[in-house]
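Methods: holo model generation. Sequences were used as deposited, without trimming of termini or removal of tags, and paired with ligand SMILES retrieved from the corresponding compound records. Each pair was processed once, and we did not select among multiple samples. The sequence and adenosine-5'-triphosphate SMILES for this entry were:
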Amino acid sequence: MDIDAPALVELTGVNKHFGDLHVLRDINLTVRKGEVLVVVGPSGSGKSTLCRAINRLETIDEGAIRVDGKPLPAEGRGLARLRADVGMVFQSFNLFAHKTVLDNVTLGPRKVRRSSRKAADDEALALLRRVGVEDQARKMPAQLSGGQQQRVAIARALAMHPKVMLFDEPTSALDPEMVNEVLDAMVALAKEGMTMIVVTHEMGFARKAADRVVFMADGQIVEEADPDTFFTAPTSERAKDFLSKILIH
Ligand SMILES: Nc1ncnc2c1ncn2[C@@H]1O[C@H](COP(=O)(O)OP(=O)(O)OP(=O)(O)O)[C@@H](O)[C@H]1O
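and the model returned the structure below.
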């Protein structure tokens, strides 16, 4: 990753509450073009909320979030553009159940990017090939395994030509034997230079693919470091405690 690359996602003084719960506490974070940032931390530390705020699936109470230099839009067309620029892959694959795999991938480009059917189909098939599921294109999502569905979800986000991809625990709902096929697709994407923010409990992925690891606890960024430093020499007691409780491959 180029350390002089321009900032693509910038959070400044971000605070968020759910009622009395202060779920994001003064978050300052910059993700540069081409960077792979992995966010780790205990359950309930605010990792999902952070991801969702960047895509404006959650509003924030204070602070500013910029994507590619622009503040997040409030509503309307700007929001559709933001959701195209910021691709999101969730734990639950969120595919449209009544549409074929191919239609799941082409729907966004045809609607938002006004691609022709032929152009959208051709690109979708190329993307499905890239994540290894092109032979599933005519099937319905329910006919696919969880790992295949998640790879379709990645292809669907990529079809919008995102500037950054957010992954919120993309393998947590998968059977163990399917985890690697999704992680491999993500590693390939990282190697191609995609800017990525990945919330995960897969520390092997973090070690392999992350440029930087951010450790969150109680809504705060407690520590951030390159993966080698974070996993071998964490400085905060909270990160040490967290790492002592998980298995690192
Ligand atoms: N819509 C909501 N309304 C109220 N509280 C919420 C809401 N969404 C999340 N929370 C709470 O905010 C806190 C942070 O949640 P969040 O999902 O961001 O954590 P997380 O670090 O992603 O956790 P996990 O690893 O378990 O997914 C939790 O205590 C959660 O219960």
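The chain has one domain: 7-245.
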